Amino acid sequence: MRGLLILLCVLLIYGMIPTIWIRRNAWRIYKKGMRKGAVALTFDDGPDPYYTPQLLDLLKKHDIKATFFVVGTRAAKYPDLIRRMDREGHEIGLHNYRHISNWILFPPFLQRGLRKSALIIERITGKRPVYYRPPWGHFNLFTWTLQAKYPTIMWTHILGDWKESIGVDELLRRLKNGLQDGAIIVLHDSGDTLGADKKAPAHMLKALELLFAEEEAKKMEWLTISEAINAHTNKQTLRM
């Protein structure tokens, strides 16, 4: 029991409290875009050999550009999908080398993993990733040391699409509610991570297809993260 309490205290100090503080104070993180009438659509946890090609087909059909925060090991396993993302004008960011919470990652492993992931993506596309999103939005006492190198992107709307039980209709409702000025929406193109349902991305794809047919969605400007936050002219602005 004592060992469990010590472990809980360490977890609170190392991970949970920094996460709450950083997210509440928006410290060195982007939580919202800067363009009115625009939405940034982002996807975490991929690439996935089954769902990501379908997603890319859907985005191409509607001429919509998105940002993919990819897992390093999966990028290395499916380089053709990374190449296709880049070729079709999407932005690629980092989502840890493996899908592991920063609450249990020590600084050297996190830094090494991000560096390795960035090199993998750069070798495939010829472009160095700029942005980072931590799995589950988890930070720790030392993640701030990486935020100057990889500006951290959070979200305005996280829709729970990793659960198959939500269903297409409810997910569509949540997506429509997310169509707000400067919104950054998180979705997931893989169901293989801890806590996710393997077939959940199928519902996400159907909900997106229905959303793109809505008049309100047709009027929105769909941007990559760089475009949404005017990254090229506002790189020094890390507090939103």
Automatic annotation (TrEMBL):
Residues 37-226 form the NodB homology domain. It comes from the Bacteria. This is Polysaccharide deacetylase family protein.
